[in-house]
Write a structure and sequence with these properties.
With about 1500 residues, the protein is of the alpha/beta class.
Length: about 1500
């Protein structure tokens, strides 16, 4: 049963392969191919096929287990499947005859029969005989597969008779055929099937093959199969045919002729080869090895098929050829790159045509080798040629191998280079010739198109030679030159007409009529007409100039780095040492201190470096300071030290002070932390009073490696920390020093320590304060024009060359002090050197005892600026005019210089001023004595000047309720601060299309109750009736240099956004008479006993504040109401003969006039401008009209009467508003005053609309770069997180969120409290949501750069114009990805927050549109001075609106959402009948940023903490 279940074994057959065998004499020197035929059939893979098999063996090999002393070989077995699917196993035996390699006779074996009889045997037996593989197997059987012949015996079932049909090797075919015939006869006796295999048919001799076929045809059932073992053709066929003869049940195979079978086989090989080559071509790195690639491809069917057919050797050769091709291709490309780079190298090394024009290539190579830049262009290799070295693999080395230059290609490049230089030289010559031709054509004007000029140059030789592109390029360059020159001349012309611009009221906006006047005057100038074809550029220059007049800082100065303020600060910083005032008095007892013990605290080795520097400047630890020798004991403490100073404090070493040195933000932070720990530990330990009063000194190390941009930041941060710690700060001296520490720094620090020690031990009597030390007897302002053609040191040399010159108080970078004996005493004179544009604020707001006005006699604009400035100076202040030129000879040789010097001297004579000249080529006129007489004159008039100043200040406070200057602690004199240059960076906003004094005029039924800010918000205004006689009051509009705090507003409501357009379209058409307004003071500000105004000049006010116009509130009890440190008296109708008259009489002097009314030159110059545009009215009519219009309303500016929001400019420069001219007073009385209609019912007090307030305290957080406030772990600034979290937790549904302004005091307090403690809780402060929202907006407004980078504004604008919504959003998304990572994270955070706010629009009425109106100026902060910006305002807003609406799409890969209907989300109008009268729009850009309104009066209106 088990046998039946077993699968039947496949039939097994034994085939004996026979043929001519024997000695070389019998068979020739090669066999007939029996072994190769067997090898190919049994092991058909190419790698297992061996073409060489020997029959000459040694005795040992013959006796081995493979041969086993037999003359036959067992080749193994092959399992074969027929077409019918039946398998069979074929054992292959080769009958041969082995020859002894010694005797060359057949080996003796157990069977001694001859080969013919032995080969015909049908039974074979050989115990433990192993399968034969190849000749190398003999003797090394253990290294090959060992397979025994089954059971040691086989019965032969058929014979394969091999006949060699090739040419043969020393063998006759007839002899072979005769041998085969005998062998066939013997084989046929066995009755076994026989097949003839014609071997080596690939080398076939045709007639041999025919004889074989003839031989077979004479025999019965004898088949001939044409084979080739080498190419594996018909090998399997012959064995299959023999098996079929042995098993008739199998299908008979088709015998195919050799040629046909060969073609089939070759086609198979070719197909496999193609596939393999494609496989190999996937390798692109010529460094790849066969081992790596073969391991990678071994399982690929195409690889396996090719290996089976052709073998590994051929596959490796194919791979090697491919790798070689890759390498050669790489070399070719490298060579091509080198040849292409050679022209650039030649341009670098051989750019001089005159040097190489006649040189051969070999000579040029020698010249190149001597060039210093040779190594940067070429590389000389140790081994050559370069393409056989590893240099071909150095793809990053772009240098050209020098041996490559010996090729013909390189020489050809050189020749082309020389020819190119020759042609380029000719081209340049022709371009320059064409340029000169253009310069000769006079009618070419700036902005003229090339097409209008080409007809005039078409016959020019140079024009014909150069290309069209070159001619256009030359013309474009010529145009740039003449346009630039025309613009410079136009700008110079504007300065020459300074009187036209510097009469503008800096708090108002120039009206349409004023702009027309300016154009009318300038249009007569050729320099104005020169830019006729560039009218937009001309208008832009004019607006930029007016913008500078409104916003005059050194950063916006039109002279750039030639600004006088910048040059003065640089010169003073390099020329003066910052000395401690009164140093000699401080140290007169220094003999009591002989030894100084110092700690030096630093990080990263800075402490040790400073100690080493001090020791370098010492001799045996003894240091000379101010004429005395001190012994120094230095103890440097590094950041890595585990000990604090208190731990190092011993009874043997008590430090007198500690030097804290830093050169980075990290080291400064470390110092701050250490000092805090030391002071905390000192307070806990309380060792002694000495330690509690330990002196710290902050020292900034010089930045040797990066000179740079970090220094101002470090200086600012260091000064802030010093102010916080109340300790000295030693800055890096101006100039360039090779070391980190300067001797002046060390001495300054040591003096500070000595000062602190002497103060602690009461060694000296209390010294005067720095403020007292810095008091000056006289304060002189020297003014100079930016861009004048003389050096700053020329005009400062009279002071700097004096031995009595010293540095001014720290922080006053543009001032110096002079100690001079004037009269009988030594006087301290403070000289402040300013540009004219910076001096305007000083002229209006500061106490100045005298002016030194400098102008260049070579420049009309310089004289024009002087005239404009001098015209508005009060005539009580002495003036010294200084003309600057090269030498006295200029006066006689140059008519223009003579004219300007004569004019200056004439003006000085008219106003009784001093006049002198400075000559750059003369040293005599640079002496200090030049100004001695002027100083004496100033000293004589000092009391009168100060009295006049105080009188003017008091009058202003009484009549207009303005802030005035407080009285100085010194008797009668006033202390003041000039604005520091660092604070000038943020000036007041420029002119606004909605000026501060422009009112919105309602319908007659409802007087003005609301006003707008630039965000479209409306603010209630409560009008106050003003007595019709109060025209006598001095309603002066103060300048923006020392602005005042804002007045808060309450009940802020949303106004129709369309109102803004109405305002812009209506400014100037129907201006109403606007009564003065004043805010009601809170109860705590009311002081009935304080009936005079206190000057506040000692208080420094930030430039971000703006002055306001206050009116007198009417009070039923006739109380004196103190408003912002100013006092007004309410007498209800008695003001005409009331307090203002008493004040005037109390001074007993005439009211000061201005110099323009004392000088016919100044007066006539100003009047000439007026007459050009008002020729239809007489001067007297102008005066009368002006005076009449000013009644019942405030005048724009007493200082600048030419312009005000109520058109008082029509009075002209002749307006004698501040004169006591009797004739003009009579004209004034003749004109009927235009009164303001009074309402009998008392009205609510008026709230004043103010510009935004800037921070007036120093902060090390707000205003810092965004990158300094975040970390990778916390990418959002902590302050922003706190504000957003507070708003979203407590007030997300607050109506008007971000539109309604919060309390400004609360906003400031939030930031100040956060500055002191970053962990503060906003909830605990009790502030409103609107205050937090305002503080958040202020944070972004104070950033040095806007959150949306300027570099992407244009892309955002262009993208927003795409009509297709989906495409537009995707483009915007790509632009957002270009943000700096820090900006991107914060922008995503704030936009996500605003999106949450907009989702609550039904309750807070803040849609994405409303939020974008409030936020876009803060986030984008565009260039409002750009005239083109007016047309893109809405686009900017829409961009931010899109970001808010599509927040999920832009930042969280969400879907595009449809925008909500904004109409449904507007808040209900608070006053539906509110109307606005039309106004004429101004052609001026809007302010720098939206104006903010406060909700209540600040607790600290002066901004003093």
């Amino acid at each position: 049963m088990m046998a039946k279940n077993k699968e039947p074994r496949p039939p097994s057959y034994a085939v004996s392969v026979v043929g001519l065998s024997g000695t070389e004499k019998d068979k020739g020197n090669c066999g007939v191919g029996k072994s190769c035929l067997c090898n190919r059939f049994v092991r058909s893979k190419a790698d297992e096929y061996y073409p060489e098999h020997t029959s000459v063996l040694s005795t040992i090999d013959f006796g081995g287990r493979v041969v086993n002393n037999d003359h036959f070989l067992y080749w193994g077995d092959v399992t074969q499947s027929g077409e019918d699917g039946i398998e069979c196993r074929i054992h292959v035996i080769e009958q041969t005859e082995f020859i002894d390699d010694q005797t060359f006779l057949p080996h003796r074996s157990t069977n001694l029969q001859p080969y013919i009889k032995r080969a015909a045997a049908s039974k074979l037996q050989s115990a433990e005989k192993l399968m034969y593989i190849c000749t190398d197997q003999l003797g090394l059987e253990q290294d090959f597969e060992q397979k025994q012949m089954p059971e040691g015996k086989l019965n032969i079932d058929g014979f394969l008779l091999c006949i060699d049909v090739s040419q043969g090797c020393n063998r006759k075919f007839d002899d072979q055929l005769k041998f085969v015939n005998n062998l066939y006869i013997q084989l046929s006796k066995s009755k076994k099937p026989i097949i003839i295999a014609a071997t080596k048919c690939d080398e076939c001799v045709d007639h041999y093959l025919r004889e074989v076929q003839a031989f077979a045809s004479n025999k019965k059932n004898l088949v001939v199969v044409e084979t080739s073992a080498r190419f594996n053709v018909n090998v399997e066929t012959c064995f299959t045919a023999l098996v079929q003869m042995m098993d008739k049940t199998r299908g008979k195979p088709k015998i195919i002729p050799y040629l046909d079978a060969y073609k089939t086989q070759r086609q198979l090989v070719v197909t496999a080869t193609d596939k393999f080559e494609k496989l190999v071509q996937t390798v692109r790195d010529y460094h790849a090895t066969w081992k790596t690639v073969s391991n990678k491809l071994k399982n690929h069917p195409d690889y396996e098929e090719y290996i089976n057919l052709e073998g590994t050797k051929k596959a490796k050769n194919t791979f090697s050829k491919h790798i070689e091709q890759l390498k050669q291709e790489h070399i070719r490309k490298r060579k091509e790159e080198y040849i292409n780079a050679l022209p650039r190298a030649l341009n670098t090394l051989l750019s001089n045509l005159e040097e190489i024009e006649l040189l051969s290539w070999s000579e040029a190579l020698k010249v190149m080798e001597k060039r210093p830049d040779f190594q940067s262009c070429f590389v000389v290799l140790e081994k050559t040629p370069w393409d056989e070295t590893d240099h071909i693999d150095k793809v990053n080395d772009r240098r050209i191998p020098f041996d490559l230059l010996n090729t013909l290609e390189a020489e050809k490049v050189y020749q082309n280079h020389v020819q190119h230089l020759i042609s380029e030289k000719r081209r340049v010559e022709m371009k320059e010739k064409f340029k000169k031709t253009l310069e000769k054509i006079q009618f070419i004007s700036p902005g003229q198109p090339w097409e209008e000029v080409i007809c005039f140059v078409v016959e020019d030789e140079a024009f014909k030679y150069i290309t069209d592109a070159d001619s256009k390029e030359v013309y474009a360059r010529h145009q740039r030159e003449i346009v630039e020159k025309a613009k410079e001349e136009f700008q110079e012309m504007l300065f020459e007409h300074s009187e036209l611009f510097y009469d503008l009221d800096l708090n108002a906006t120039p009206s349409t009529d004023k702009m027309s006047e300016i154009h009318a005057v300038l249009s007569e100038e050729p320099r104005y007409k020169a830019l006729q074809k560039l009218a937009p550029d001309r208008e832009s220059l004019l607006l930029k100039h007016i913008g500078f007049v409104y916003h005059p800082t050194k950063e916006t100065c039109l002279s750039g780095q030639n600004c006088m303020d910048i040059k003065v600060e640089e010169l003073l910083a390099n020329s003066l040492l910052q000395q401690d005032h009164g140093r000699s008095n401080l140290y007169h007892d220094s003999a009591n201190i002989d030894k100084i013990n110092l700690f030096i605290l630093g990080k990263d080795g800075l402490a040790q470096e400073l100690a080493n520097e001090i020791r370098t400047q010492s001799t045996d630890d003894e240091y000379a300071l101010d004429g005395k020798i001190y012994e120094l004991d230095l103890r440097p403490v590094d950041a890595k030290s585990p000990y604090l100073l208190t731990q190092l404090w011993t009874s043997a070493f008590k430090p007198h002070g500690c030097f804290c040195v830093f050169n980075s933000i990290e080291s400064l932070t470390f110092i701050g932390e250490c000092i805090a720990k030391i002071r905390a530990e000192a307070s806990q330990i309380r060792r002694d009073r000495y330690m509690a009063n330990l002196s710290f000194t902050l020292i900034l190390a010089n930045q040797r490696d990066s000179v740079s941009k970090n220094l101002p930041i470090l200086r600012h941060q260091g000064q802030q920390l010093a102010n916080k710690l109340q300790c000295p700060f030693v800055d890096v001296p101006a100039g360039t020093y090779p070391r980190k520490f300067n001797e002046a720094q060390i001495k300054q620090a040591l003096r500070g320590v000595l000062e602190a020690v002497k103060h602690n031990f009461d060694v000296v009597s209390p010294v005067p304060t720095i403020k007292d030390l810095s008091e000056a007897d006289l304060r002189i302002v020297m003014c100079a024009m930016c861009g004048d053609p003389f050096s700053v040191d020329l005009i400062l040399s009279p002071f700097l060359d004096s031995h009595s010159c010293s540095a001014a108080q720290a922080g006053q970078n543009n001032s110096l002090m002079l100690d001079k004996i004037i009269g009988e005493k030594r006087r301290r004179i403070q000289i402040t050197i300013l540009s004219y544009h910076s001096s305007i604020g000083v002229r209006k707001d500061e106490l100045v005892h005298g002016y030194i006005l400098v102008y260049s006699a070579k420049r009309k604009a310089s004289m024009g600026m002087l005239r404009a400035f001098l015209s508005e100076v009060q005539d009580t202040i002495p003036v010294q005019l200084v003309a600057v030129t090269d030498s006295q000879a200029d006066f006689f040789e140059n008519e223009a210089i003579k004219e300007l010097m004569t004019e200056g001297e004439h003006i000085a004579t008219e106003i009784t001023a001093k006049f002198t000249a400075l000559y750059s080529l003369s040293q005599y006129h640079r002496q200090t004595e030049v100004f001695t007489l002027f100083f004496s004159d100033v000293l004589e008039k000092k009391n009168m000047i100060e009295s006049s100043y105080m009188s003017d200040s008091t009058r202003e406070s009484t009549h207009t309720s303005e802030d005035v200057f407080p009285r100085s602690p010194r008797g009668g004199s006033l202390d003041y601060n000039y604005p520091d240059s660092e604070d000038d960076a943020e000036g007041p906003p420029p002119y606004s299309p909605i000026g501060d004094d422009v009112r919105l005029l309602p319908a007659p039924s409802d007087r003005s109750k609301y006003r707008l800010d630039l965000e479209g918000n409306e603010y209630p205004i409560h009008s106050t009736p003003i007595n019709c006689h109060d025209h006598e009051r001095n309603h002066k509009v103060p300048p923006p240099i020392k602005p005042k705090p804002l007045v808060p507003r309450t009940n802020v409501k949303k106004l129709d956004p369309n109102l803004l357009k109405t305002i812009e379209a209506g400014i100037g058409k129907n201006p109403r008479k606007q009564p003065s307004r004043v805010p009601a003071a809170p109860p705590e500000d009311t002081d009935q006993s304080d009936n005079y105004a206190e000057p506040i000049d000692t208080i420094y006010k930030h430039k971000g504040f703006a002055d306001d116009i206050y009116a007198v509130p009417e009070d039923s009890q006739n109380r004196i109401i103190k408003v912002r440190n100013s006092v007004v008296i309410n007498t209800q109708g008695e003001e005409e003969n009331g307090f203002s008259d008493r004040v005037s009489k109390s001074h007993g002097e005439r009211r000061p006039s201005k110099y323009k009314y004392k000088s016919k030159t100044l007066f006539s110059k100003a009047k000439s401008y007026y007459r050009r545009t008002h020729s239809d009215a007489s001067d007297d009519e102008a005066f009368t009209t002006s005076k009449g219009k000013r009644k019942g309303r405030h005048r724009g500016s007493e200082e600048d009467p030419l312009l005000s929001p109520v058109e008082t400019w029509k009075g002209g420069i002749d307006n004698p508003a501040i004169t006591s001219d009797q004739e003009l007073d009579e004209k004034k009385m003749k004109k009927k005053p235009h009164k303001v209609k009074e309402d009998k019912k008392p009205k609510k007090k008026t709230k004043t609309f103010n510009p935004p307030i800037r921070r007036n305290w120093e902060s090390n957080y707000f205003g810092m770069p965004l990158q300094d406030l975040v970390t990778p772990e916390k990418p959002i600034p902590l302050f922003v997180e706190k504000c957003v979290q507070f708003i979203e937790d407590t007030g997300l549904c607050t109506e008007g969120l971000y539109r309604v302004s919060g309390n400004k005091t609360d906003q400031d307090n939030i930031q100040k409290q956060f500055d002191q403690d970053h962990n503060i809780s906003l909830e605990s402060m009790g502030v409103t949501v609107n205050a937090v929202a305002g503080a958040l907006k202020a944070f972004f407004a104070d950033l040095p750069d806007p959150l949306v980078p300027y570099s992407l504004h244009q892309e955002l604008l262009e993208t927003s114009k795409i009509m297709d919504k989906t495409e537009r959003l995707h483009e915007l998304k790509e632009i957002v990805k270009k943000f700096h990572p820090v900006n991107y994270d914060v922008f995503r955070y704030i936009i996500t927050h605003l999106n949450r706010v907009s989702q609550q629009y039904k309750t807070n009425y803040m849609t994405a549109d409303n939020l974008s109106i409030c936020f876009w100026p803060t986030l984008m902060r565009p260039d409002f001075e750009n005239r083109e910006f007016l047309s893109t305002t809405k686009i900017h807003q829409s961009v931010i609106e899109t970001f808010i609406q599509q927040c999920q799409f832009f930042f969280y890969n969400g879907e595009i959402v449809e925008a909500p209907n904004p109409v449904a989300c507007q808040p209900p109008p608070s006053n539906p009948v509110q109307m606005v009268e039309p106004m004429v729009p101004l052609q001026l850009p809007p302010p720098l940023q939206p104006q903010l309104i406060q909700s209540q009066l600040p607790a600290d209106p002066l901004g003093i903490i």
